[in-house]
Design a protein that fits this description.
three-stranded antiparallel β-sheet, 9 strands
């Protein structure tokens, strides 16, 4: 089924095409893009030509396929330095991963969705869907709920309208009503848990990163597999987690971070 057009104007349409190319995870032919596009053939071709001209997409004339352009790598590095907590938080999350012996995620929120901006692993025993650059729902992830619980009322209302509330596992919140109950508890406790809500068998303990004005700018989670630890086991890491998020928040105090969307 073709996708709906989500971008506004020519730039928005071009970004939608860029997202579609990226979603394939491999070089993709025009016919495949057309089958997955809401745009007419001529419009899609024009948008691809524009993106190719700007080096955001690369076209292989021999195979006829399109792939993401290297200019995106340059832009990604610039965004990582300018808008990501990763450069500031890296030493802290590395130390936290070593101290706990578990995987540590660093995340921020954008348009109601969680973006994982860094990850530190201590072993290859298990893997999670979260990878730097990956996007995940806020309502069913530890880092997402930790951030949502500390958003201002108007920002929280906006973020909740951007959640699909898909049932990823039997433990996923089915509606805003049940989520709001937990968010109130998280705001009181200062920590959040992922109880296998996004991935079966994956649990985490998470805490928000607050700047000097108590504005939430991100979150950190300690993640493990249910074959390794329980939620009670993760609770032991609470002091180390809170110390880490406090340290990152203090170091980010003078950082001009973009306002949380």
């Amino acid at each position: 089924m073709n996708k709906q057009i989500t971008g506004s104007g020519t730039v928005g349409k071009a970004l939608d095409v860029l997202d579609t190319v990226a979603s394939f995870g491999r070089p993709v032919r025009f016919s495949e893009l057309l089958a997955d596009s809401p745009h007419p053939k001529a419009t899609l071709y024009r948008l691809l030509q524009s993106l190719t001209h700007e080096r955001l997409i690369t076209h292989d004339a021999e195979s006829g396929s399109y792939s993401l352009g290297l200019r995106l790598v340059q832009l990604a590095h610039s965004a990582w330095r300018q808008s990501s907590l990763a450069p500031i938080a890296a030493p802290t999350i590395e130390a936290l991963a070593k101290e706990t012996g578990e995987t540590v995620h660093l995340a921020q929120i954008d348009n109601g969705q969680i973006i994982f901006v860094d990850k530190c692993r201590t072993s290859n025993i298990f893997e999670t869907l979260a990878q730097p650059g990956r996007v995940a729902p806020a309502f069913c992830t530890g880092v997402g709920k930790a951030i949502l619980a500390f958003l201002s009322a108007d920002r929280l209302d906006r973020a909740l309208t951007q959640q699909a509330f898909l049932q990823y596992t039997p433990n996923t919140h089915p509606s805003p009503a049940s989520l709001m109950v937990e968010l109130a508890q998280i705001a009181q406790d200062g920590i959040a848990f992922d109880r296998e809500e996004h991935e079966q068998g994956i649990i985490s303990i998470a805490a928000p990163i607050l700047d000097g004005n108590d504005r939430v700018i991100g979150a950190v989670s300690i993640v493990t597999s249910t074959t390794r630890k329980s939620l009670d086991d993760l609770s032991v890491f609470r002091p180390a987690l809170l110390a880490a998020t406090a340290r990152i928040g203090a170091e980010a105090h003078d950082w001009q971070f973009p306002a949380v969307s």
